[in-house]
Structure prediction request, 670 residues.
Amino acid sequence: MKTTTRHRGLQNFAVLRKAAACCSCILFSVVCLPAQRTTSRENQVKAVFLFNFTQFIEWPASAFNSPDAPFIIGVIGNDPFGNYLDETVAGEKVMNHPLVIQRYKDLGELQTCHMLFIGQEDPQKIKTILDVLNRRHTLTVSDYKNFAYSGGMIRFYTQENKTRLQINLSIAKAAELNISSKLLRVAEIID
Amino acid sequence: MILTCTAFFAYEYYSFLRTTRIQLSTLGKVIASNSTAALAFDNREDASTLLSALKAEPHIVAACLYDEAGNVFSTYPEGISVDVFPQRPGADGYIYTGTYLEGFEPSVEGNKKLGTLYLKSDMEAMYARFQLYGRIAFLVIVGSFFFAFFLSRRLQKTISDPIHSLADTARSISEHKDYGVRATKSNVDELGLLTDAFNQMLTQIEAQNSAITAFNQQLEQKVHQRTAQLEQAKDEMEVINNKLVKSNRDLEQFAYVASHDLQEPLRKIHTFTEMAEKKALDQEQQKLYFQKIKSSAKRMSELITAVLNYSRLSRTAEEFADTDLNIVVENIKTDFELLISEKNATIENKGLPVIKGISLQLHQLCLNLISNALKFTEQQPVIQITSRVVSAEDISRMTGWVANGNYAELVFKDNGIGFDQQYAQKIFTIFQRLHDKHSYAGTGIGLALCKKIVDNHNGFITAQSEVGKGSAFYIYLPV
Prediction:
């Protein structure tokens, strides 16, 4: 927040605008780096995985209002990715749909999205969220241990320091999501 | 064949390179496409599994996956050092590097590049294939060589052999000049036709040859004939020439002798006529001279008659006829009846042969010899006439003359005055007298006539004598 203020304070000095821009960039990155470090290597990988899901899973056309409507990745509950997720998807498109990140503090904020990362450990809360999303074309992803066994679609887990996937194929199919066999190859299928 | 193989190899080489590249590219595309999820979700096990599927393709010696950042993600085969791979992925596509085909294939999902696949393939497949091709080519070449060999053997049998036999025949013909030889016809084809033509030619040559030979023989025969005729003519000419030479010699002799012998009575007549003129008064003397002139004229007349006889003998060309010499001698005995009884002479003759000849001349011959025997004697003449048959060899041995066939030998042997054997040849020459004409009458022509007659009958005459012991005349006449 401090940097933003300083940035605004320098705005009026037209002569120094360009130099200031450069400086702000440098300062921004310097200030931001500690924040990024807070995003663990594991979570960075997960953020990239979230983006990669868009490459291996096909959403039905009916999931979008228009051909150029945004593809919304939602994050509910704890957000372990920080800015890293935003940076990962920045400028990317899925089938001509620009990628957009939306964050929801609780169920009350939840809106229609195409992919939802659920940062919750409470089975009850997860069930509530999944119930809300029922019958919608939303890919649900979570770290929760029994996620794939309790109505969720994809669960991240760690094995030998690697992030692995558990996929409940029938739930995904029920949501009319077509998961590539290639993705299935690298995942543990739960039925 | 080798050119075809080379062309085929070249074509195969390039098509194989292209095919290999396409195959590798396809394989790369499949693997790269399949490896996207492994790259995207950082699943090295899956990537390894995917790459290990390359085992099915033994020519892939190495392969690796680079992640999005260009770091080596997974390698193949298991346990291979990372150093063998390029540190960073290069440009997409495949290139041949020495004996390897290597290249990069992007691993793309949707339109997002997730990594790069590197493949390295050796060319063993190609070499194996080329080895196979090489073997096949070798077999084909060897096979076709043998095929060609056997084909040429067969062709040689049907083409070369007849030509060889034709050439052999031609050679043997030219060596032995035997145009009766014929080439054997082996097949009914062009060579058979050639053989036929060759044989036909030989037949013609043979025919012409025999015609030429016949003509040659004819020619030779003619030449022989002509030569023989010429020889005969030459012989005849020689005979005639000899006769001419002889008659010429005779003539010369005759002229020489005539100048002496015929002039002698003339000289006497001349001398005595002159003397008679001088002694016109002495009648007695004149009478003597006239007597001498008369006897000289008579002698002259005798000489001329004898010469005429002799010359007539040269010209006669009468036919030969069988003449019985016994009758001839009997006739002569009758002619000399007076003289024989006067001299009390004895003539013994018996078993004389019949000779082919001119009877008048034979008569003359015997007459002259008997006359000589009666004339040249001082006692009672005894004349023995004998005959026998002798061969030509005997004549040659006895006289040295060249004769042929059998001859009748007539011997007139007397007991007269004889002559020296050295004159045995000379006595047959005309006007050769051994004795003074006053001692013994004669013209000197008698024996010359005898020789002439014997010559006319193709015979020989010779004499053997010793002074005072009689003489023997040997006459050989062909029978």
Notes: The two ends of chain B are 103 Å apart (CA to CA).
